[in-house]
Design brief:
Layout (H helix, E strand, L loop, with lengths): L6 E5 L5 E2 L15 E5 L31 E2 L4 H7 L3 E2 L3 E6 L5 H11 L6 E5 L4 H11 L21 H10 L2 E4 L4 H11 L3 E5 L16 H17 L3 E6 L12 H5 L2 E7 L9 E9 L7 E7 L2 E4 L4 H4 L11 E8 L2 E13 L7 E2 L5 H14 L7 E7 L11 H13 L7 E3 L2 E2 L5 E2 L4 H10 L4 E5 L16 E4 L2 H8 L7
Parallel strand pairs: 6-10, 6-11, 7-8, 7-9, 9-10, 15-19, 17-18, 19-22, 22-23
Antiparallel strand pairs: 1-2, 1-3, 4-5, 11-12, 12-13, 13-14, 15-16, 16-18, 20-21
Helix pairs in contact: 9-10, 10-12
Length: 493
């Protein structure tokens, strides 16, 4: 019998495929670019790669549990966001604005990762000499003083961690190519345990077209690399650029293909003179998305921040100014204190406006409406400005009581008592609802020198041990009670 063949029509400009011929490509709009192409044998991943065997099923009990082990990145803040380390056979997408430190973070992690295997750094945007210059500036080859260790803290010069970092850097191999077929040959030869691709937008394959950065190029090249790490005992980092709206550039399918999506953010308001960076997980199949990694950018690269409260608290002498409140918030498993700042001014238009980029403006409007309804505080003819010291973005509901206190203080001109921390969720009925891990917030506040704490009455599900000394801890049930305690003797109604 005559051997049957399957044909498709591929666009020579963008690589788009169609089952039948069309005069105009529906993807890029070019005319007469669809060319008949045979698809027999296209299941080969890379040129020269062996044929894949037929998949087979296995009982769950027969699966080796060691396949789910993690590799420590050597940077505590990165491991925290990843859920405890780099999961083997996983793909991680790291996005962020240009120059924020994505390449620096991954190069530092490659130098101190706790693995004996090779690490392959694929650069499609920089030359090998430029990558070496960055490594020398960060002190990775010699184990400089600011190389972060497994705990996220910098090693001292000459310590054992420094020698480990320098020895680990010798295992980093660089390849400067964006062609997928060339990368596939190197992967099969090197067999790395960690692969870093900088960046995914630079990858291309002649099978899809010669223009990198297209939708089909990103999907095809990413799929092939992800398939390789799934079949081998390796992990993949894909560096991605973001659009002006702050989302990862390219198809949304790319985020669905990977296991973890990380966003690297920069504070536009440096706290205490430090250039802060925040690492968040928008998606994580192997951990929580509530964790936050905090770094500061120094001359020697990124340095992990172990005490985040030093970034978000402003130490003042004497009383607080009106419009300032301190909130005890949770970010994943960590509790720290942040300063909430509010300002109210008469509205210049007929409709009042809310200006808040670090706290959701909808939450600010809801809290201000609760104040206006239950405390008769006139806010409808005032513009409202809200800020978080240090430039960190807060999404936790426990910030609402402190936000209400800051807005009330700004509108009335009455300052909150110093050394007072607040935590609690507000309902539309003016109630202060319980929040998670209330006692942890109390202990954190006390450890930082705060003598008073206002929070909700804990619910029956609170399992943490209460503080031994309950002095200075006020349990409140309503917003009106909180205002009475905070501004007693200052004319608050």
């Amino acid at each position: 019998m005559k051997k049957s063949k399957t044909y498709i029509y591929k666009c020579s400009a963008c690589g788009h495929e169609e089952p039948k011929w069309l005069g105009r490509c529906p993807e890029c709009g070019e005319w007469n670019t669809l060319i008949e192409t045979s698809v027999s044998g296209r299941d080969r991943v890379r040129a020269g790669a062996p044929e894949r065997g037929m998949p087979r099923s296995l009982p769950l009990s027969a699966i080796d549990p060691q396949e789910g082990n993690r590799i420590s990145s050597g940077i505590g803040e990165l491991d925290r966001v990843l859920g405890g380390g780099i999961m083997k056979r996983s793909a991680i997408l790291v996005g962020g604005e240009p120059g924020i430190g994505k390449s620096t973070l991954l190069l530092q992690a490659a130098a101190v990762a706790e693995t004996t295997g090779r690490i392959l750094y694929i650069s499609g945007e920089e030359s090998a000499g430029q990558v070496r210059m960055r490594a020398d500036r960060l002190g990775l080859l010699s184990g400089g003083p600011d190389t972060p260790g497994a705990s996220g803290a910098p090693h001292t010069s000459g310590g054992p961690g420094v020698r480990q970092a320098g020895a680990q850097a010798e295992r980093i191999e660089i390849v400067c190519s964006a062609r997928l077929e060339d990368i596939g040959v190197i992967l099969d030869a090197v067999k790395p345990v960690i692969i870093i691709v900088d960046s995914v937008q630079s990858l291309f394959s002649p099978e899809v077209g010669l223009v990198p950065g297209t939708v089909n190029q990103m999907k095809y090249c990413s799929f092939e690399l992800i398939s390789w790490v799934k079949e081998h005992d390796a992990a993949l980092f894909l560096v991605a650029h973001v659009t002006k709206d702050g989302i990862i550039a390219g198809p949304k399918t790319l985020e669905h293909m990977v296991d973890t999506v990380l966003y690297f953010e920069q504070s536009d308001r440096p706290g205490n003179g430090q250039d802060s960076r925040f690492l968040r997980a928008a998606k994580n199949r192997f951990g929580s998305v509530d964790e936050l990694g905090i770094f500061t950018m120094t001359e020697k690269g990124l340095k992990a921040v172990e005490d985040p409260s030093s970034l978000f608290l402003i130490r003042r002498e004497g009383e607080l100014p009106p419009g300032v409140a301190v909130a005890a918030v949770l970010e994943g498993s960590r509790c720290f204190l942040v300063e909430i700042q509010a300002l109210t001014v008469p509205a210049r238009a007929s409709i009042n406006r809310v200006f808040s980029d670090r706290i959701d403006s909808g939450r600010v409007s809801r809290v201000s409406a609760t104040l206006e309804k239950h405390l008769k505080l006139r806010l409808q003819d005032h513009d409202l400005y809200v800020n978080v010291a240090g430039g960190i973005r807060i999404n936790e509901v426990g910030i609402e009581l402190a936000l209400a206190g800051a807005i009330y203080s700004a509108r009335t001109g009455l300052a909150l008592p110093s050394q007072t921390a607040l935590a609690g969720e507000l309902s539309l009925a003016g109630e202060v609802r319980p929040v998670r891990r209330l006692n942890t917030r109390v202990k954190t506040s006390r450890s930082l020198g705060f003598t008073r704490f206002l929070g909700p009455v804990p619910d029956s599900g609170e399992t943490e041990t209460a503080p031994a000394d309950s002095a200075g801890v006020h349990k409140i049930a309503s917003l009106k009670n909180a205002v009475t305690l905070l501004f007693a003797g200052q004319g608050a109604e």
